[in-house]
Amino acid sequence: MMRNIVLTMSYDGTDFQGWQMQPGQRTVQETLQTAITDFTGEKRIRLKASGRTDAGVHAVGQVVNFFTMAQYSCNDVVRALNSRLPEDVVVRHASETNLSFNASDDAKRKLYRYVIHDGDTPDPLLRRYCYHIRRNLDAAAMHRACQHLKGKHDFHSFETKWPNRLSSVRTVSHIAVNRVG
Fold first, then answer.
1. Which residues carry out catalysis?
2. In terms of C-beta density within 10 A (0-12 exposed, 13-18 middle, 19 or more buried), how is residue 87 classed?
3. What is the dihedral of CA 10, 13, 16, 19, to 10 degrees?
4. Distance from first CA to last CA of the chain, Å, rounded?
5. CB atoms within 10 A of CB 180
6. What would the DSSP string read from start to end of 73-90?
7. What is the mean pLDDT of the chain?
8. Average pLDDT over residues 113-129
């Protein structure tokens, strides 16, 4: 019986060339697909993801689904995949859903977080997870300025190839600039 398995995963994107498979490149999709194929023995595994990341981009809760005939429990799927994945990718959760679910088409919203470390001295422990700028930024002014992006807008001018989607109109429901520490 065909099953639709949904995975929630995290990865450190530093050493990946993004999500989508690319010949001769290490990608998250290729890495996960190889682990699933190895585990299930099925050669025609196709992953659908809630979004694609660029090279070097990390994910905390990426949602992915795939179809399988394998009858393993979802707990076994998590354990088996994590034993086959490299240390920079982890499956946090697996569940079974209806056959019509598609992580790409059914995504309702996405959360993006950009981290900037400002000041004279970079922190070597943060170098993979934030952008360093050597001057102090005015977080309050940045927060005020970005509020103009809230709401429904056409982001066509930010796209690299047109048309690459049915619509470039998006709704930004929350945007904030916060200073931590």
1. 54
2. exposed
3. 60
4. 52
5. 6
6. -HHHHHHHHHHHS-TTEE
7. 90
8. 86
